[in-house]
User: What shape does this take?
Amino acid sequence: MPKTTLSIPFNNSYANLPSHFFAKVLPTPVKKPELILFNHSLATELGIEFKSDSQAELEAELAQVFSGNSIPQGAEPLAMAYSGHQFGHLNPQLGDGRAILLGEVLIQKQQQPNQQQRFDIQLKGSGRTPFSRGGDGRSPIGPVIREYLVCEAMHALGVSTTRALAAVSSGEPVYRQGVEPGAVFTRVAKSHIRVGTFQFFSLRNDKKAVTLLADHVLQRHYSDIDNRNPERYLEMFRAICRRQAKLICQWMNVGFVHGVMNTDNMLVSGEGIDYGPCAFLESYHPETVFSSIDRQGRYAYGNQAAMAQWNLSRLAECLLFLFDSDEKVAIEKAKTVLDEFAEFYLDNHHLSNSRKLGFNQATSKELVDDILHWLTLNKLDYTLFWHRLGKHLESMSADALLQEFSITDVQQKDDFSAWFTRWQKALDTGNCRSTARVTMQQSNPVFIPRNHRVVEAIEAAEENNFQPLKRLLKALETPYLEQESLADLMLPAKDSERVTRTFCGT
Ligand code: AMP
Ligand code: MG
Assistant: This one.
């Protein structure tokens, strides 16, 4: 009898779709897998069970499984086919070039025990696949750690996201600009079906496959839409648009810049995915871009809703024949839904900005716009500003806040003081004062994965020191809760520490 056992209750569905949806392929084993991080609470949610006599043996077994060296029972490893518009340019042949879906688990939903939820368990950096093109199918440790941190930070922030189950170092070098240690990331998602997955079949004029995929998505992600409804595909599109609008609002709310919102990086489930050259705002400006490859600012902070709408238009193009047999009518239907996206986004974005100011309902548009304009001019740290505003809601005067942020310009001081008075008045008029503190606390995080801290954690991990990573992860687990012992992780980068560029690092 083996002393260590691990079981994953696989229940696969994508593997049952026609064979041209994917390529069956096994992970390529790595030399010396060692467990860096494992998300025990997520594993429990997924029904993953393990028994072991010793911690060391358990870690070794987890490293074997989540590096791809050992294939757990019930897994049906495959690489998914997809296309995608990358920075506006269509690439018809992408697909999982360095990721392999092990399989899916089907679990009872926590809040609704009579409903089930399916989750993909996917390895990333697990070796070449038929979709690898010129790539090596591997991942350096840096991007693995960044994705782990951002996934779990997003989850704790209340942002719809794919999750991190494990990070395992491979013991093998990965060659990029220089030589870097390799690692494998295990990602959990409601599915990995992208806008680009629909594009893959649509581009090949394979209507049968598009319909099959749409039916799969309806059943898997939008089961509340009646499958006898003749408008079910349009309803699905509407629901996808709504989830994307909500997701972008959530990103805007926490100052997140995704950086690579290509159609192959947009999931139809509405979860955020592929945290590569992403970063969180420090000083507030809508045109903020971090990614070194986003030279035109296509995916700048303030452009994200427009880019989501652009991607959704590409999705609509794939689905038109399912909306109506008359193409003109189908286009009109799609346009209506895309217009609704814009409206729904703007309403929700305004509501979440209102909540950042302590209002439970939408407040005056000017009040929000004026403070955002002031923040732009004064380049204040986005996260810290809202936090301070909320923390000292009752006690702090405009002057004290101005002092805290060292604002000395007379005009800027006057503008802020005038705004501050209007804000206080609006809270009273809206009867929001008693709940404002809690509303602000729930809307304005204390901890975000600040770029310089992420880089610090990665650089230490590259030297085999995982303490900064674990400490940062701890702060990010409760991002709305101030903790004295972690206070340094709240602070913006000093000039010497600031990281203004991020890289794909693939
Ligand atoms: P991403 O930028 O991570 O969204 O990836 C875009 C496309 O490039 C996807 O099809 C990936 O599978 C592929 N890709 C990225 N890095 C690699 C790599 N190291 N080896 C093979 N394929 C890769
Ligand atoms: Mg991608």
The chain has a mean pLDDT of 96. The longest helix spans residues 327-356.
